[in-house]
Amino acid sequence: MATIAPQKIATVFRRPEATTGFWSWITTVDHKKIAVMYGYTAFGFFIVGGIEALLLRIQLAGPDGTFLTAAQYNGLFTTHAVTMIFLFVMPMASAFFNYLLPLMLGARDVAFPRMNAVSYWIFLFGGIFIYSSLFFATNPAPLGGNLPGGALDASPLGSIPNGGWFLYAPNSGTQFSPGTSIDYAALGLQILGIASLISAVNFIVTIFNMRTKGMRLLRMPVFVWMTLIVAFLLLFSLPIIAIALFMLTADRQFGSVFFVASSGGDPILWQNLFWLFGHPEVYILILPAMGMVSEVLPVFSRKPLFGYPAIVFAGGAIAFLGFGVWAHHMFSSDIPTVAQAAFGLSTMTIAIPTGIKIFNWIATIWGGRIRLKTPMLFSLGFVALFVIGGLSGVTHAIVPSDWQQTDTYYIVAHFHYVLFGGAVFGLFSGLYYWFPKLTGRMYNERLGQVHFGLMFLGTNLTFGPMHWLGLQGMVRRTWVYSADTGLGPWNMVVSIGAFIIALSIFVFMVNWTWSKRKGEIAPNDPWDARTLEWTIPSPTPEYNFGVEPTVTALDDFWHQKYDEDDEGRAVRRPEADELVDRLIEANGNPTTEIHLPAPSYFPIIAGFGMMLLAYGIIYHTRPWGIPLIVVGILMLISSLLGWGGEPLEEVHEEHLDGQGDSDHDPGSLDPNQESTPRELAGVED
Amino acid sequence: MSDIVHDDLTESADDHDSHGHHESTGVDNRKLGMWFFLSSEFLFFGTLITNYLLFKGRDFGPGSIYPVEFYDIPFTSISSFVLLMSSLTMVLAHAALVRGDQNQTRTWLAATGMLGLVFVSGQFFEFTEFVNEGLKLTTNPAASAFFLLTGFHGIHVVVGVVLLLSLWGKSVRQPGGLSPEQGLSVELVGLYWHFVDIIWIVIFVVVYLIQ
Q1: How far is B50 from chain A (nearest CA, A)?
Q2: Domains annotated on chain A, with CATH
Q3: pLDDT tens per residue, range A251-269
């Protein structure tokens, strides 16, 4: 057996060596482990955000609710939104990006494995930072008044950020929000933005540079395309919100007056900057789900994806147009009529590429031999519910109509149909579809279908009636309504629907936990799929591909398995099963030396330093504030220099030694055995 | 028979061309990453500059003062010239490295860092003067926008100086000077440095000269 490679590198910290257990997760740079961490963290936040939603719905179930105070209600709807958008949907999408990008492209890992780990840790500490407001932040009453329903600070949950996820000025200024809770939200979002920006660069470079032989751009799976588009959206929208949040933080912490109207500041500027980021953000949330659905629908219809280039270009068009529609969030603000007309028009044009996608998906299913497995059900649910949300979205493009709807539950209904009925259904579709790839086992199909049924019912019960509640005039972000409005019955239906969704999520958790350990062993290629990740063993070996794949067409794997008959229908080749087994056998038994990036402590240190820095900025007037800033910056710099400063020459020699070393222990690699990378490392020094 | 080796080598998973996986575009991962990062930075400064243009001529009531009244154009011209020259020395550092002249690389890297420091010192002096004369971050939104814009540019210069000096430190410490791998780092820092320079040219023209 090859010896474990001794550590030659002298750095401040001992080099991480653990490959299993706690420390292996802390130091990992493996895209699959990072994806799993993203997934579980995001799901944890999903549960938290869901509980917040249930608390809101208990309060609103009947008229004159007394379950929550106004202050608690404000805090809960703010953190519900922040959690679901930034701590659940985005990182859950990132989990899929991380896991699937290298597999779909035929690569060993992402382009920058350690930066990938940095993204995760910054995201995690950003989430912790925002939720630490529960313990550390304050929400004292603004000068000249208090909210009805009790003192702000006194109640439990009273200290969480309460300005809405959009943090509108001037409400987010020190005059109306004198406590620190808004600072937690603003700096927390800043931290999460940095994590996303790093990921975006990483994913773009991965997609452009890590494609396997023959994987031309227009042979990439749609999911990869949507990831690329999302990464560009992040790249160009995040700097805008970063500046806006810096301005807000400077206003609150250092006395600048950007949004202080009494000093000549401009609160509307906040709205412009926020939505200039905020609207691309909604496409950042939905496009990953669209990518997953575009993978699932053809597989379960046993047909190629209809109009692949059209779907790809429509995704790009949505992203491009998405930068030119932000003012439709502000029609009731003081913006010129011409601008309202222009933005109304540009908003309507979004419907064109979206329509292209929908019709292509329908054409994909059309005439297919459909298998109604759980992933397919969720994808079909996605298409149906997203159409409803998309149509109500078009009504917002009509300015006078929007004036009636704005700040009512009609808007809440709209964006929950696209984000819950859309993005979240897409994510669950993906979770079921790639479950065998992740775990090597099958989920329980019956429970999966129960989950879908309950969730589909719950979604429509929850968000459907919100349309008419909104049109009847029920306003958003108000913690109570009186009985004589007649809004009570439908609100009760909505609240019942919310609990049905919660039940469906519980079913999902049972299914996941049980199937992960006790589920049937997944067959090779369980779905008769078309993309490269199904040509390797499940669960994915640490090195991904034993043999670097070569691609000759779009859906190459599928074309190897299927032929066309005289009428143009797909017919499975007789030798297909054998081919799949052979591919998976080969990919599980690599014959060449494989180089994987080494684990590192530095990513988690960088993430932690970022969090300390943010605390330091909030408390910079306290005696320990400045030291916190200094420590945070030092941790950041030392971790960056730490990994950048590893003596490259020395390792390079080790590397060459490894290459020239021919005295390896045969059979040191058995993919079925729980072997650890260091044991596998055959480098003799 | 096979091996899995965990590379301690560099950031990039497929840096080692000898192991089969070429960059699909032919451009090094890190260079491509830097380009895309800089494309994001353009939006960052674009937002800051727009922000300043939005506020610079607004009426803030009687007796309001504007950054433009405080500019010392000759002074800022000189510091701009210093920063511009640092781009030249950066190019010289890279060219020397390509020639394999480690001594000159070292010299020009240090020179670039020093010029950057001179620029930042100039900015520090400028800020101090402005504050003494009564233009503060808190004065009005135009002043806030001015300080935020030039302040963030200054932070970028400082980051660049740290990167340059760490490269310079390596070239001094390592017996053989910078390795070919680190040569790429010089190029990357160069890209970043030129970007910071270009942004300053835009700021100098749009904010200082066009009044």
Answers
A1: 11
A2: 31-220 (1.20.210.10), 528-587 (no CATH)
A3: 999 999 999 998 899 999 9
